[in-house]
Amino acid sequence: MSAPGPKLHSKLPQVETSIFTTMGKLAVKHKAINLSQGFPNFKPDPVLLDLVSRAMDDGYNQYAPMQGIFSLRETISEKIASLYGKRYHPESEITVTAGATQAIFTIITAFIRSGDEVIVFKPAYDCYEPAIQINGGVPVFQQLNDSDFRVDWEAFQQAISPKTKMVIINTPHNPSGTLLMAEDMLRLQEILKNTDIIVISDEVYEHIVFDGNTHESVAKYSDLASRSFICASFGKTFHATGWKMGYCAAPAALMVEFQRTHEFNVFCVNHPVQRALNQYLKTPEHYLGLNRFYQEKRDFFLEALRDSRFEPIPSKGTYFQLLDYSNITEESDIAFAKRLTIDHGVASIPISAFNVDGKDNKVLRFCFAKTKDTLERATAILCGI
Ligand code: PMP
Ligand code: GLN
Fold first, then answer.
1. Which of 104, 201, 241, 278 is most buried, judging by how many CB atoms fall within 10 Å of its CB?
2. pLDDT over 80 at 1, yes or no
3. Alpha helices, DSSP H, located in the chain
4. Proportion of the chain above pLDDT 90, given as a percent
5. CA 20 – ligand 2 centroid, Å
6. What are 342-356's pLDDT values in tens digits?
């Protein structure tokens, strides 16, 4: 007898449990130090926590406006203008979202129709592809260079077809920790000139850039900005990934379309947190200090691994460090990541999960957004492997 209930025909049959959930659960089960999913194991600034409590006490507990509270949009507009020299109008060009994920899903839903192609560079963060597919779009993958994760712009140009509707870029890049440099942005701008291609620029790690490099926001390139959505995450910037707060910015004509979908997706997002973020963002040191804060953690992590058999691949931004383990074993990255968690007590993310056809280069991703004590314990274990 068949099971009761409707017969189902999944819209995303190929989607399985995410690698973050898989490795996170394994870490909990085996009481491993969890350097897999990207989140800090320390609290947000108490000043920010107080601001949130105060906003709730002050009665900001009902719906916010659809686009986000105006004062926060003004503050975001100021921030982008002071950092990247482009002013997005707070009335018509900024929307506060439930994290970058909701912004990305909403952009794709607002613009992608059946058969539209979206170019995605791999390895890629995992939320892009299902959002494209559930909207009937076709992801067109371009694998980044294995050694330094640079984009092959010739190949990118070749990948553009009359069906290309969108391209997704991500700098600083998760999982590799590489950056798009000014020459990359200029090249992209040039290639897209005279096309109708829309860009999603995933800039959630904009404030985590190391070694004196600068973050190349699309906002700095006027022609590129005219076709782009910038997606940002307060979760990443303020050590509060569980709040799921972010925003996106784009020229008014694009933002109108975005809001047509956003309005019936969430309508609006967490009101008291918006009040708090608006106050907190008024002190730029709250985000400008992040580069140094995380660079110290990266350097501590790398120094502690100096005598290990893992080979680091330079991380220029994000709070992730890739380690090549090919000196240690020939196991697949998934098998090795699981063994490292179960037998040795350190959880990481196997990079094949983000590559075209699960390409396995024997590289694991470790999140170093952790206290010194946690990083000390984890690196002591990794040095013994
Ligand atoms: N893009 C990238 C590259 C990410 O690493 C993440 C994970 N935080 C997101 C988007 C999603 O951000 P949020 O948690 O704000 O939805
Ligand atoms: N952005 C986080 C990471 O890359 C994961 C968030 C999630 O689990 N979807 O680790």
1. 201
2. no
3. 19-29, 46-57, 70-84, 99-111, 128-134, 153-159, 182-192, 222-225, 234-237, 252-262, 271-280, 285-288, 290-304, 333-339, 372-383
4. 98
5. 6
6. 999 999 999 999 999
Q: 3-class DSSP state for residue 314?
A: coil
CA of residue 363 to ligand 2 center, whole Å: 17
Edge-to-edge strand ranges of the sheet holding 363-367: 311-313, 320-324, 363-367, 349-350
Give the residue, out of 107, 144, 174, with the most ligand 1 atoms within 8 A of its beta carbon, to mutate for a pocket test. 174
Residues with a CB atom less than 6 Å from ligand 1: 38, 99-101, 125, 170, 174, 202, 204, 233, 235-236, 241, 244, 246
Q: Is the CB of 348 under 6 A from ligand 2?
A: no
In tens, the pLDDT along 136-159 reads 999 999 999 988 999 999 999 999
Ligand of minimum distance to the alpha carbon of 241: 1
Q: What is the mean pLDDT of residues 292-321?
A: 98
